[in-house]
Design brief:
This protein is of the alpha+beta class and about 425 residues long. It is built from 10 helices and 18 strands. The longest helix is centred in the C-terminal third of the chain and has 22 residues.
Length: about 425
């Protein structure tokens, strides 16, 4: 029986995941869930494919241990859209290997981490190691857009039964204790149309929206916060649409605003303040009407580095970190401590006290914001991919980092759950 942690097995296994197109939209995660279920069945492990919506599914496998803790390994099945042939050198779903790297959409974000988690669980089963508690492996649909898979799981399961959650998002094989929150808003301004040659008879929503954007720019600093672990909040206007044609005064214009938050910012308070500012503008611009639509609300995730899950991960990442820093000198993927310090992502935790330079936060949001049981569940974010490569053309993963992460996840499960005495 071949060791699933070996290069001979683990590398082709990851290639098989990359070669399945699960770009979201539309996702089509169901076919990858079925592929993984069939693999687990061949290995003698039961799993469930749970439909989220047509063509979209979660996969859940429970490696039962003795009565004790429950640890969840979680990764998502979907990826963002593929890059174009003009944008990149390698085919997005080719899983091409060159120079110690595997290229393909999802290699870093995050089929590499998901594959490593699955193989870690299978390796324990292969060797007949019965854990002291249950290891749950959850592969979700839809994380890249709306976390529909994680939300469905949270609706049908008691998250309070879990004792730890590990998310395999790319961290450059570094221990991350949390991530920023995300609040996405769509602001729509309604005006009044008129002939383009008689603009005084209308209310130009496009021009009015310029004032709204200026308002966001003026108040961005007021709404800014900084956390020594998670970094700084941000606000950006990233999409705009409006108008009908050149000779018609625009009666409607919309913008999409991406706000990333850190403590002490609260989404409800921030939304109320933005709405109040827009109400004030409406009073000054009689005839205009504003609408605020909440597109996404993902909470901040933060776990105290003193939690056992994080302390265990730091011990395991210690020797691996030395190898990672050496590989960085040779050009491999990773995040240097110096870079983290420059970005403000290491230092004193939100709750106070010193934090090792090995601890960081990440700027992107994850399924943990849905699954962390309102902040009660310890969360570790750890993955072999480089976060800077996420969503980029010619996305790749360092094969050695991927292989090392299988052993990391395996040992983490053993140390956190223990081994059954029987």
């Amino acid at each position: 029986m071949i060791d699933v942690r070996s290069r001979e097995f683990a590398v082709p296994f990851l290639q098989s995941l990359i070669q399945v197109d699960t770009c979201n939209p539309p996702g089509n995660e169901h076919r990858l869930a079925l592929l993984l279920q069939e693999y687990l069945r061949r290995e003698g492990l039961e799993s469930r494919v749970i439909t989220v919506e047509q063509g979209r599914s979660n996969l859940e496998a429970v490696i039962a241990g003795s009565r004790g803790r429950k640890l969840m390994f979680c990764g998502h099945l979907d990826t963002v859209s593929p890059w174009t042939a003009e944008a990149g050198k390698y085919p997005p779903h080719g899983a091409v290997i060159e120079g110690g790297r595997m290229y393909g959409r999802g290699t870093s974000d995050m089929k590499g981490g998901l594959a490593a988690m699955l193989l870690a669980a299978v390796s324990l089963h292969q060797e007949g190691i019965r854990l002291g508690g249950d290891l749950i492996v959850l592969a979700t649909a839809g994380e890249e857009v709306d976390s529909c898979g994680a939300r469905q799981y949270a609706e049908h399961h008691s998250l309070g039964e879990l004792d730890g959650l590990v998310i395999a998002e790319p961290t450059g094989s570094r221990v991350a204790v949390g991530h920023k929150g995300a609040l996405w808003l769509r602001i729509t301004l309604h005006g009044r149309s008129a002939h383009g040659s008689m603009p005084h008879l209308g209310l130009n929503a496009v021009e009015g929206m310029m004032e709204v954007i200026a308002l966001f720019k003026r108040h961005a600093l007021e709404w800014q916060a900084h956390d020594p672990v998670l970094g700084s909040s941000s606000l950006s206007v990233n999409a705009i649409s409006g108008g009908v044609q050149t000779n018609v005064i625009a009666d409607r214009c919309s913008i999409d605003v991406d706000i990333r938050t850190v403590p002490p910012l609260q989404h409800s308070g921030l939304l109320a303040e933005i709405t109040a500012k827009l109400d004030g503008m409406q009073q000054l611009n009689a005839g205009f009407r504003y609408e605020v639509e909440e597109l996404l609300d993902r909470s901040v995730v933060y776990t105290d580095p003193g939690e056992e899950l994080i302390r265990t991960a730091l011990v395991l990442a210690g020797s691996a970190g030395e190898e990672t820093e050496q590989s960085q000198e040779n050009g491999s993927a990773g995040i240097s401590v110096a870079a983290d310090q420059a970005a403000g992502t290491v230092g004193t935790p939100t709750g106070g006290g010193a934090v090792s330079a090995a601890v960081q936060g990440v700027s992107y949001y994850t399924d943990a914001s849905v699954l962390h049981n309102h902040g009660k569940l310890p969360v570790l974010i750890y993955g072999p991919g480089d976060p800077k490569l996420a969503h980029q053309p010619d996305e790749w993963i360092d094969i050695e980092a991927y292989l090392d992460s299988i052993s990391f996840y395996r040992e983490l499960a053993v140390r956190f759950l223990g081994v059954a005495a029987d």
